[in-house]
Please model this.
Amino acid sequence: MLKTKKVCQSARIILMACWLVFIATNYSSAQQTGADKPEFNPDTVFTFHSPRPLLSLDELKNALTNAWGVDLVFSGNGFAGGVFMQKKIQEGFYGFVDLYISGARNSDEFELYDPTTRQTFIRDKINRLYMFPLMFGASYSLFQNKVIGSFKPFASAGVGPTFILSTPYYDKEKDIFVGFFESFGSAKFFTRFGGFIGIGADIETSPRNVSNVEIRYFFIPFGGAGLESIEGLPITDFGGLFISFSIGFRY
Model:
């Protein structure tokens, strides 16, 4: 009796195995990798167009004729800043207006510490001087058809007014140092005309970005006896060598 049951169980297992093999065989034949794929017929009724013309990099740059940005400036006066606006007049020729904001001095000015008063001061300094040259100028790209790559040298020149602000640093009559904010109550304002010549290079990273470095020499005569930052060392010309790093955006 037990032997008959074992034979029946074995037969069921064999039949079940055969059934599973049959199902797996049929499934695999239905998923043959070599079967032909149905032909795809693209729809030719609808045609899509870009709402804007597709421009090359050169065409995009030519379409962007205006630019603005900021300047980081270094000179004998220390670090300064500025802003600029630029307009393309024709290929390689640009007009611009820019404004620098800088301190002014004609000698090194080092702060000293007075242990008696516990104050820092600059020896012989009597005025704080600030200058704001507002220049209208033009730049011209050099060797336009000979330079390969993103390094584009240019020459520039400009003229315009320079606004000079003088505030007292030390009051000789009262023998006291004047605070920074307090000094603006006795500020004096001057305007002088001047200009500059420069040479630099555009570093093109993309059609929409402006990036360049430039060396400018400014001529800003003050006239008369000049204006003192350090007593006995009047500044008669607020010009000099300025190095600027500019970044901006075309639009």
